[in-house]
Structures are given as C-alpha cells and as structure tokens.
Specification:
Blueprint lengths: L10 H10 L6 H10 L14 H10 L6 E7 L5 E7 L5 E9 L2 E5 L3 E3 L14 E4 L2 H15 L5 E4 L9 H11 L12 E5 L3 H10 L4 E5 L5 H7 L8 H15 L3 E7 L7 H11 L4 E7 L13 H13 L4 E3 L13 H8 L3
Parallel strand pairs: 4-7, 7-8, 8-9, 9-10, 10-11, 11-12
Antiparallel strand pairs: 1-2, 2-3, 3-4, 5-6
C-alpha cells in the first residue's frame, strides 16, 4: 500500500490524520510549519513534537526531500541551475535567478513534457509523469536550504506543461501562499502554458491573483502549429478569448511569451501581425531569443532583429520587454541539463 505523502496535505487534512493517530489537532499546525516554514528535511527535526509521534510520521508516511545531483553556477553568479533526483530515480531541473528585486525560482511541473514544442529540449523523450505538489514545493525549499536565501518570486515555467498537471498545480499554489507556509503573494507567482483550453477556463474560475503567461511564439495559426503541435487543439483567436476571460475574472493582465527564432518567426511581418493581434489588450509581451538546443536546427535571432521586433511592437502600443539572458553558460534553458545528464550520468 502506497504511503500518504505528508507535504501534500493541507493543515486541515493533517488535523484529520492526527485524530486517527489519537493526537491533539493543534499538532497539525506545528507539523505544517515545520514542513513549509522551517523547511525540515525529516520529521525527526520537529523537536516540539513527542518522540513517539515523530517516529510514527517517519515510519508510516512518505516525506519528500529532493537529492541534489548537480548544481551549476553561471560565471556572473546570477544564476544557479539544479538537477534534483526524485525518490523514484527520475531527475528534474530547477533554476534560481538573482535579480535586484529579489530571487526568482523557476520550477518544473512534470518529469519531461508531452507538448512537443519543436524548439525546446524539455519535450525530447516525452513525458514520464506528473510531479506531486510536494515535489513542486520541495524544489523551492531545497534551493532555499542550499543558499540560505529567501525566494521572492516563483515561475512555473520549467520542464512540463503546468496545466497538464492541474490538480497538483492548484494545490501547490494554495500551499505556497498559505500564511502558515512561505506565505508568498499570489501576485509573485507566474504560471506558463502553451494553451490548453479547458484548464485555462478552469484557472480563470479559480480567481487567483497569479500571472498567466501564454507561450505564443507565433502570430498566426499556421506557423504556431508548425512550432507547437499542441496548438492544433485550439486557434490563437480562441486562446485570446480565454486570455480576455482570465483578465475579466481576475483583473490580472496576461503575459505572452514569444521565443525568437532566426528566420522562422522573427521577421518584421511577424512583429506587425503580432502587434495587430494584441492591439488594445491589457497585456505584456516577453521576447525571448531562443536558447540553442543541439538536437534542433533552430538558431536564436541576432540582436538587431530582436531590437527591430521590439520597436515594431512598441510602435503598436504593445507593452514589451526582452528577457534578460541568464545562465546560458550552464545549460539553464528548460530541459538542457537534464538531457545532458541522461545521456552521460557521470
């Protein structure tokens, strides 16, 4: 019989579990804070609990702690990339990025990815499984324990499609923002999606204050479907309607991620199409010169084309930034380090 994972339980669920162990309900808050505030690596660290309870928790329940396999630091010290091993032997990537406004952690939501985007290393080899909410949280906790530094922002933009792991994602968000946990503001959480219609609709109904980031990467359906097989399920027009719905229900503007690939989607006509597509919307475009992946033929746009693309969007009154490149010298792009490790674990 599979053991219950303690870090996946809400405080209320912990209270019910403790009642079954004939323990006082107030212990639930203590355990929850040990896990999600003090970042204990085992129940044995929970020193204000009776020894017998700590033993029961250790023996009868599962307790997720990630094993650090590799940690690389960029030359400028701004980025640290981690490869963590899960209990079942799978490995996942997590990236810490230091900005002047605070530390951001980019986490994975799945082991691998089944979306098939042609410019991304994460999808090579497909999806193996979803991550639990505990495995998502633990990526942040492991980075904080390793660095001793507080995390200000979290982006669910690493390996995997977050909305393809919907229930675990929502549980993760509620636990990350819980006042008895890290109590991160929902406004400091960004969730990326390549555009899954029904989960996007459900997310709007949750009325969370998180930022939704749509991976657009093309200004028309024909090109988008060549780059992103998942785009066949929904047109850009339908996705924009869902983005408008999200804005109406949450008051949060949507970000559009656009990876610039030389000679593919970075021409002036593409920028003009994109500007027309987003005209009048309260949104933000994040331009990302694509990270080269050795298994792909795509090259990143030269900086002159990137600046020209931005200028056309700005002339169209579109709010736009160019993502600052961080960690390219340590395989910080999604899936690259995991892919390299799987090929050569030594």
């Amino acid at each position: 019989m599979e053991k219950i994972e303690l870090k996946c339980l809400s405080e209320e669920q912990l209270s019910e579990l403790l009642c079954g162990l004939s323990e006082k309900p107030f212990r639930a808050k203590q355990i929850y804070q040990w896990m999600h505030q003090k970042l204990a690596v085992s129940p044995e660290e929970m020193t204000n609990l009776p020894k017998t309870l700590r033993q029961q928790l250790s023996e009868r329940f599962s307790y997720t702690v990630l094993e650090k396999v590799v940690m690389l630091v960029s030359k400028d010290g701004s980025t640290q990339k981690y490869l963590f091993r899960l209990e079942d032997g799978n490995v996942i990537e997590t990236v810490l990025m230091r900005y002047h406004h605070g530390n951001s952690v980019c986490i994975s939501s799945q082991v691998g990815c089944r979306m098939g985007c042609t410019f991304c290393a994460s999808t090579i080899g497909g999806k193996r499984r979803d991550l639990t909410s505990a495995e998502m949280l633990e990526q942040i906790y492991a980075v904080m324990r390793d660095t001793g530094e507080r995390v200000a922002n979290v982006v669910v933009m690493g390996t995997g499609e977050p909305l393809d792991n919907y229930e675990n994602l929502i549980r993760f968000i509620h636990m990350l923002t819980d006042e008895n946990g890290l109590h991160l503001s929902q406004r400091n959480i960004t969730v990326s999606t390549c555009g899954l219609p029904e989960p996007m609709r459900r997310l709007a109904d949750e009325k969370l204050a998180i930022t939704l980031a749509l991976s657009l990467h093309a200004p028309n359906d024909e090109l988008r479907r060549k780059l992103m097989p998942a785009a066949r399920a929904c047109t850009i027009a339908q996705l924009l309607e869902l983005c408008d719905l999200y804005f109406r229900k949450t008051g949060r503007r949507v970000s559009f991620e656009y990876s610039l690939i030389e000679g593919v989607n970075d021409r002036p006509e593409h920028a003009k199409q994109l500007a027309e597509l987003l005209r009048g919307r309260n949104c933000h475009v994040n331009l990302i010169p694509v990270n080269p992946v050795k298994e792909r033929d795509y090259r990143r746009s030269n900086f002159t084309n990137v600046l020209s693309f931005r200028k056309i969007l700005e002339n169209g009154k579109i709010n736009v930034t160019i993502r600052r490149e961080m960690g390219s010298d340590i395989d910080a792009a999604c899936g690259q380090l995991r892919r390299r490790y799987m090929e050569d674990p030594e």
